[in-house]
Amino acid sequence: MSTGSSQAYHLIRSSLAVGSETFKKNANDDWFNTEINGSEVKGNLQLSPDPNQLTYLNPNDLEQLQEQMEQLLVKMSDLTADVLDILSIQWLKGERTSKSGSIFLTIDDFLKYRGLKPKKSRNRKAGYRDDQRSSISYHLNILKNLWVTIKELKVKEMVDGQIKRKTIAVDGPLIFLDARIRKIDDETGEEEIVGYEIRPGLPLARILYDTNQVALLSQKALSYDHQKFKLEKRLTRYLSYLWRVRQQTNSYTKPISVKKILKQIKMEVNYQRPSRTRNRFEDTLDRLENDGVIAEWRYIDFVDIDKKKWIEKWLESNVIIFPPDEIVQHYEPMQKSPDILENDSGRKSKNNKDNHIGKKLMEKRKSLNLTMSQVAEQIGINVSTISRIENGKSNPRGKNKKRILDWIDGKGDL
Question: Which of 4, 62, 68, 219 is most buried, by the most CB atoms less than 10 A from its CB?
Fold first, then answer.
């Protein structure tokens, strides 16, 4: 699944996931706010109705709205971020139902995306539970009441037939939401929400469509339980963003510090019982590896946890997280290839049918049950280069050829 992956989108989604930890209201503020600042975006999110409609509210009505917004903030969570991701996935698919860019989704569509299965029963009502459905509506209402103010956003636009980068400013609601309602009982007038017509507000539309940055998101990011496995969910989202950024420089396996990962997934360090933090951190990565979200992970720095005050050294230590082959192959067509390898005649080639080395490399790798990232590390060659060789898009020569042959069988000349 492809979802938004610009820095702006990542920061907005991360803010929603932790809700009250980031949204604050100062003494002079009427509404809860959080900043979304990075190298490519500067702005803020405000949890409030449309500010343009608040000018003439009397004090009592204003106080009631503020209380409603505070209630929404209490419920804001990783599930809110999930709902935004599902909308992003649908919008980027281009499956719009109107000229305004709206999409129509039923409540059950959201629950299916999350990997939940409807109840099957002969004696009781089948389908999803009412609380599951109402939860989706609630989090859509949170998104509806978010106002985005972006002072600086780097986007790409077509100018005279060329793509050029520019900085824009834009503000508006995060999404527009219209419920489709049907009566289920004419006598009582009881109604139910069938689904929603939803379109992105102008800031989100610019972020999704004009930054030209889309990432492959694992289904697990949506299906992990937002309470029991929220750390796994957050790390899956972060890696989706990180790998999209790193594909530009083919640096998927660049080490990451433990401290940085904990910061990204908003995991607090228990200094009284640091082993609990370390164990939960390792359990999170182990689960992602077992579920195929990552291929493998490992520490590259040794920390003696039997020594006093080991926690500080552990926080500064680094891990390598290997992406699955699916990620490498997905981004391969998007990558610039400064290291396009030459074939044996010296001519540069991206497609050579005579790919004996690539076939042998793939056979050996699969026989050892290794990923491309793992093989690339062992041989000392870029993972994207390994992918191109295996797929017959280039043939190695010189040192790279020797390294691959040595890895395949120790010696040889194919």
Answer: 4
Q: Which segments of 63-120 are extended strands (E)?
A: 103-106
Q: Do the strands 146-159 and 162-173 form a parallel or antiparallel pair, or are they unpaired?
A: antiparallel
Element at 240 (helix H, strand E): helix 230-246
Task: Say which residues have a Cβ less than 8 Å from residue 36's Cβ, sequence separation at least 6.
Answer: 8, 11, 12, 15, 42, 43, 44, 45, 150
Of 242, 261, 264, 262, which Cα lies nearest the Cα of 253?
Answer: 242
> What DSSP string runs through 248-310?
TTT-TT--EEHHHHHHHTT----SSSHHHHHHHHHHHHHHHHHTTSSSEEEESS---TTSTTH
Handedness of CA 63, 66, 70, 71 (dihedral sign): positive
List Cβ neighbours of 399 (8 Å cut-off, separation of 6 or more).
none
pLDDT tens profile 78-132 = 999 999 999 998 888 876 555 567 888 999 999 999 988 888 766 556 788 888 8
Distance CA 375, CA 369 (A): 10
Q: Are 192 and 108 in contact (CB under 8 A)?
A: no
pLDDT of residue 122: 63
Say how far apart CA 46 and CA 380 lie, in whole Å: 48
Greater confidence, 158 or 151?
151
